[in-house]
Amino acid sequence: MENLIALLVAAPLLGAAVLLCGGRRLDRTGHWIGTLLAVASFAVGVLLFTDMLGKDAEHRALHQALFSWIPVEGFQADVAFQLDQLSMTFVLLITGVGSLIHIYSIGYMEHDERRRRFFGYLNLFLAAMLLLVIADNYLLLYVGWEGVGLASYLLIGFWQHKPSAATAAKKAFLVNRVGDMGLSIAIMLMFTTFGTFAFGPVLESVGDTGEGKLTAIGLMLLLAACGKSAQVPLQSWLGDAMEGPTPVSALIHAATMVTAGVYLITRSGAIFNAAPDAQLAVVIVGAVTLIFGAIVGCAKDDIKKALAGSTMSQIGYMILAAGLGPIGYAFAIMHLVTHGFFKAGLFLGAGSVMHGMNDEVDMRKYGGLRKYMPVTFVTFGLGYLAIIGFPGLSGFWSKDKIIEAAFAYDDGIRGWIFGGVALLGAGITAFYMTRVMIMTFFGEKRWQPDESGNEPHPHESPKSMTIPMIVLAFGSVFAGGLFSLNESFVKWLEPVTQFEHPHPVISVPAITASTVVVLLLGAGLAYLMYGRKPVPVTAPRGSLLTRAARRDLLQDDFNHVVLVRGGEHLTRSLVYVDHTVVDGVVNGTAAGFGGLSGRLRKLQNGFARSYAVSMFGGTAILIAATLLMRAV
Amino acid sequence: MSASAVHSLWTMAAPIDKIDAPTIEYTQLLPTLIVIGAAVLGILVEAFVGRKARYYVQVFLTVVALVAAFAAVIGLAAGGYASTEAKIVAMGAIAVDGPALFLQGTILLTGLVAVFTFAERRLDPAAHGNHVDSFTAQAASVPGSESEQAAVKAGFTTTEVFPLSLFAIGGMLVFPAANDLLTLFIALEVLSLPLYLLCALARRKRLMSQEAAVKYFLLGAFSSAFLLFGVALVYGYAGTVSYAGIADVVDGTVQTVDPALAGTMGNDALLLVGAAMILMGLLFKVGAVPFHMWTPDVYQGAPTPVTGFMAAATKVAAFGALLRLLYVVLPGLRWDWRPVMWGVAIATMLIGAIVAITQTDIKRLLAYSSIAHAGFILAGVIAATPDGISSVLFYLGAYSFVTIGAFAVVTLVRDAGGEATHLSKWAGLGRRSPLVAAVFAVFLLAFAGIPLTSGFAGKFAVFKAAAEGGAGMLVVVGVISSAIAAFFYIRVIVLMFFSEPKPEGPTVAVPSPLTITAIGVGVAVTLVLGVAPQYFLDLANQAGVFVR
């Protein structure tokens, strides 16, 4: 069975190779090839999953060593795969959602002449992401990590003729670089500390290592996670990444790639468990980001950017949960999976709306769309209910558990703070998602003809688009409940991530009740603000906070002032030092040697007699030195 | 004196002991014998073959002889003489072992390539309907005289250069294989005398060429005298000129004193002074500081093909002899010669590199570069380890082909006065003849030791050997010198590619396949040894054991 693992990666990799190298001949069939191979990978995943379910919990992990990658004495890097319950969860999510989005893209990208290439990139992404989650060592994980970064770059900038898309791709790539540096440093630290990269030996020998080193490794891993998962302070790229085609936003920038940071932290749980300081940093990053993203989500009028803020915020929940240790890992992953369903569904719904509205993204120019696109409305609506945590739907089960775990951080003030933040986040989530829902599907129609006189004719999308949305809507409704039934998901992951029951500072029913109350407050406030009175087509000036939030809470301004300006000053001063000090030394040395050369050159006067004298003198010195050496 | 008295002297003389004929292993000496034999034949060709056909016969004879000798070397190496079967032949005069065969092979190949450049006749425009080469029409005619003009008009050529070069190569083959001090001296003279002559034979700038030859001869004779005196002193110390015999006395394994030498034998002062003088003779040949001063003048004055030949083959032979002397004769004296050689190596590297900075003539620049390279090779010699030997062997092989190639390129860049060797004339060459400039750039990068060229692999090998042999300081100086040297190599590249060409700049002559072969072999060896040096390093490693 374990020999099938490589097939997971091989199928989409083959697709990428065929589609990207195949040329125009494949333009007509390319999207079918890509989709078929994605589905094939999903089928292999399901096969492995059923096989895994047949075994008892302790013996489910599979291992496949493919070949030795860099065999050097004292440095062993293998291409080997490990498929345990955690990896399996990701494999199913990636290939499942991935396949749906391949199918959706067939319709969505129908009129794009570079559709073949688009599917090639999607397959490349699947291969890299699968490699990331089934690698059995950090070095191979890093390969996948960089691979998804590349695929993300290519797909954000897929419409490269738009300068904004090209810039966004570059931005995402650069910001991710910072995180990647963190991962590479972490891997180097691991190698110097443990002498290996493989998960097994590294995580087992954590107990014998000093806490300082573990904290350093943990912080570097956190930096990596911040980059890939768009957490503060490396969050700035995600909003711009929405320049990519909507299926990409759904697959990569909502459901899968951006959750790689959560995977990394959960996988490295043993390191974080032994380094409480690093763990605290993880929780703080998660808490800050979940509020940050939620606030940004409240102010955006671009439907995809509002959803991007929401993604950031929801991943903040996951990171926070992962930072809580064994009480949180399972819920982090559970929220990750349910979020994968409903957020992908929401993005596909947004794509469906844009598809019917001539690619308009401004929600102020929507309104009343429920009549025109009933399927989209229903599936989007179910996703909406799921994300705000409406009792009974997927988001409720996973998010509520995270809030409980956050209250259980410790018995003191920190439990209250983190629990309170998580609770507040739930309220803001309800507010901005209700806002999105009302502005898009309710109220009066607000669209007008554009400059060239084209008035949008909203219509329902084709079957290839609506079916994936329907499937995802099922996931949004039932997945959470199914996972929570008899704590099945927690038990499934327990052999990998460990599990402890959280003991919150206040009782669980009280938390659940207050979550529901906060949710209703948020949703009600949004209804009062956007449902009761007409939404203006041009955005009002808004309060200071609103304006800041529209600018992503000044993240780019901050980066510009601190990093860009600072960097410029740094380079300028370095150039100054280079010109004066370094060049001075270099030129001085050169001039010195030049002068010496000119003087020595005069010894070469062309007279054989002088040469003979120098030879004679040289021989005398040679003899004297030889004798002297004997004497001393 | 009457006839009978004479007769009685003749018959009454005491019967002399029968002289045993020496045993000569002709097979093992085959490479040298072929070359020397061909040289003798070449003289007969000069005497008996008509003027028109002489050039072709000589070139053919020389090339065949060198190829045959090389085949003989390969045959000996394949027969195990480079490793297990290594032996001393010709009554102890010649060693046939790995280093000897490796260096002989290198000398023969570089000699062959050099002969191609000697035979080049297309660079200069034909004079009076005759093709001309780099050599004077008639060496005996006074420069600028009427007899010279007559010789040119008659289409004379100095085809003697081919047998002369064969004699020189013959001496070079024996030099690194010599196993006693007298053979060493004879080989030195056999290789040097033809070179003095060759230096004087330039077709253009004949006065400069003759001046170079006279200087080379005077200083060479001076150094030979030192070397011979050193041989005498060492004989006084050891009672023998055989390498193994001297080494035994130095080690103290032989205690018996020759009664005739009772007063001097075992006197260390004699050994040290004598050894220093022999070393001086060899250091003169490799061009080490402070015995280097002939190098720039001779390199500049000699006909450029001869310069390339000297710079490559002579250096190989001389370093071979130096290695054998230090590793076979004087290992017991290591603690005496190593510090002195340290000083020589440091001075050679630094002075070669520093003085090269201000040179304005490409041939002089390459001369100083060769001095700096002699210093780098000395660093490997000083390592006094088996790795030291093999790294020096590799370096010599790599360096000699680059050198011949570089000088061959120099012959191509010409103006009305012959070769345009002043650096200012090379400005913008890259625009005018990108291919020639690119090839020269490859050679310069190899000289500078840039990775992916043979120069890097060689430098790395010798520095590694030196560092492992405990000469870390030498490596530091070597790297600094390399950095200084890189400056002037790169400066030439910058000059060629990034300067405006001068309006009345030189032209690049279109050579015949002979020079193209020489340059092509240089480039090929440079790149192959740079990209995949391992096979040749292994070869040098296997060849790195001296027989004693």
TrEMBL record, chain A:
It is a multi-pass membrane protein. InterPro entries: NADHpl_OxRdtase_5_subgr, ND/Mrp_TM, NU5C-like, Proton_antipo_N. It is found in: Endomembrane system; Membrane. The chain crosses the membrane at residues 31-49, 87-106, 118-135, 181-202, 214-234, 246-266, 278-299, 372-393, 413-433, 467-485, 505-530, 611-629. Residues 69-119 form the NADH-Ubiquinone oxidoreductase (complex I) chain 5 N-terminal domain. The keyword Transmembrane applies. One of its GO terms (cellular component) is endomembrane system. It comes from the Bacteria. Pfam families: Proton_antipo_M (PF00361), Proton_antipo_N (PF00662). Residues 135-411 form the NADH:quinone oxidoreductase/Mrp antiporter transmembrane domain. Keywords: Membrane, Transmembrane, Transmembrane helix. The keyword Metal-binding does not apply. GO terms for biological process: ATP synthesis coupled electron transport; electron transport coupled proton transport. One of its GO terms (molecular function) is NADH dehydrogenase (ubiquinone) activity. This is NADH-quinone oxidoreductase subunit L. It comes from Streptomyces boluensis. The gene is nuoL.
Automatic annotation (TrEMBL), chain B:
It catalyses: a quinone + NADH + 5 H(+)(in) = a quinol + NAD(+) + 4 H(+)(out). It comes from the Bacteria. Its EC number is 7.1.1.-. NDH-1 is composed of 14 different subunits. Subunits NuoA, H, J, K, L, M, N constitute the membrane sector of the complex. It is found in: Cell membrane; Endomembrane system; Membrane. One of its GO terms (molecular function) is NADH dehydrogenase (quinone) (non-electrogenic) activity. The gene is nuoN. Pfam families: Proton_antipo_M. It is a multi-pass membrane protein. One of its GO terms (biological process) is ATP synthesis coupled electron transport. One of its GO terms (cellular component) is plasma membrane. This is NADH-quinone oxidoreductase subunit N. Belongs to the complex I subunit 2 family. Keywords: Cell membrane, Membrane, NAD, Oxidoreductase, Quinone, Translocase, Transmembrane, Transmembrane helix, Transport. InterPro entries: NADH-Q_OxRdtase_suN/2, ND/Mrp_TM. It comes from Streptomyces boluensis. Residues 178-484 form the NADH:quinone oxidoreductase/Mrp antiporter transmembrane domain.
